[in-house]
Amino acid sequence: MGSQGMDIRVEPIADSGPVQLPEPLGFGRVFTRRMFSQRWDSARGWHDATIGPYRPITLDPAAQILHSGQAIFEGTKAYVRPDGRFNLFRPDANALRFNRSAERIAMPQLPVASFIEAIEALVRLEHAWAPRGEGASLYIRPVMIATEATFEVRAAREFLHYVVLSPAGPYFASGFQPVGVLVAEEHIRAARGGTGAAKTPGNYAASLAAIEGARANGYQQVLWLDAVERRFVEEAGAMNVAFVYEGREIVTPGLSGSILAGITRDSILRLAPDLGFGVRETRLDIDTVVADVAAGRITEAFCMGTAAVVVPIGRIGHRGRDHAIGDGGAGPVVQRLYGALTDIQYGRAADAYGWTRTIDVPTEGRAAA
Ligand SMILES: Cc1ncc(COP(=O)(O)O)c(C=O)c1O
């Protein structure tokens, strides 16, 4: 199957009746009936590529994922185009980041073609689960975990790669809702030389206490500062962050070594100049940011990531004070970027960047959303 000849065995599934999507779909709570999986060991490399029923994974209680946390994952989406075919958005970029993450966590590389082929084969079989409509998509989650049973602290010699799919509704069911972000003063997410630039679960575990703290204080996200000086803005929650100066320049922290290189971030940095905006990657001191917000030089701020595309930031909490950005609503730059990027993702506009990969899917039996 496929040009690389990855031999994917397709197992039957017990339940193949019509797809019923719950309303509202939400994000990451519903999973389709099939999953892709394959295994790796040092003798055979990648083998046993299978698409079978979505089911629990059986692990030895000593499996290294459970002790050393040797795991990586990705997040990307399939979008239903107006012509009924599906678009993947820059899956090669996800494949390359998966391999960069794998290298950092001492896991085996996965050929880019196999990463994409596993996704495409699964999406074709599960196409009926893709919701249509503004902001809806089929979220794709590739994962790799260490399955070897040992308490030794060393790279495992056995791994499982799997892919699961989750139909996702619009991130904001009723239009843009700006979020409040609380600057993390006690915790840091990642340090340079650590794993912040890799998509590995430990980074997310390290962020949870701060996220809960922000929520308890009425904010939706954490604004992370650098680990050394506790001064420079890094990311917002599990998204990249940018500030709009004077309504025309988009300024975002440069990739410091502890920031995850977001594919949405990269896309916006490439798209924005073609929409007439300036872009700048630099170090952003939180005190300067707060002063520029107060002076009205920063007119908008937003988070960027695959799940929500762009999320306006309405206010920043810092040292016990709340700073509203602009009028606290979704500004014109955020709306313009959202429109331009999603038009490409959904195939409503021509893709001048070669970002989308269109796949044919059968047209019958599709779910209503
Ligand atoms: C920590 C972190 N930063 C940024 C992003 C945004 O990356 P992307 O735009 O590739 O989804 C993500 C999501 O993957 C993330 O987990």
What can be said about this structure in brief?
Helix content is 21%, strand content 29%. The protein has 369 residues and is α+β, with helices and mostly antiparallel strands. The model has no long low-confidence stretch (mean pLDDT 95).
What is the count of DSSP helices, taking H or I runs of 4+ residues? 6
Q: What fraction of residues sit in β-strands?
A: 25-35%
Q: Helix amount, in percent?
A: 10-25%
Rg from Cα: 21 Å
Order of helices and strands: EEEEEEHHEEEHEEEEHEHEEEHE
Task: Give the distance, in angstroms, between the N- and C-terminal Cα atoms.
Answer: 31 Å
List strands and helices in order, with pairings:
Layout: E1 9-10, E2 34-41, E3 45-53, E4 71-73, E5 76-80, E6 86-89, H1 91-104, H2 112-125, E7 137-146, E8 158-168, E9 179-183, H3 201-216, E10 221-225, E11 233-236, E12 240-245, E13 249-253, H4 263-271, E14 278-282, H5 286-294, E15 298-305, E16 309-318, E17 321-324, H6 332-345, E18 356-359
Helix pairs in contact: 1-2
The structure holds pyridoxal-5'-phosphate.
Pyridoxal-5'-phosphate is lined by residues 75, 235, 238-240, 260, 262-265, 304-306.
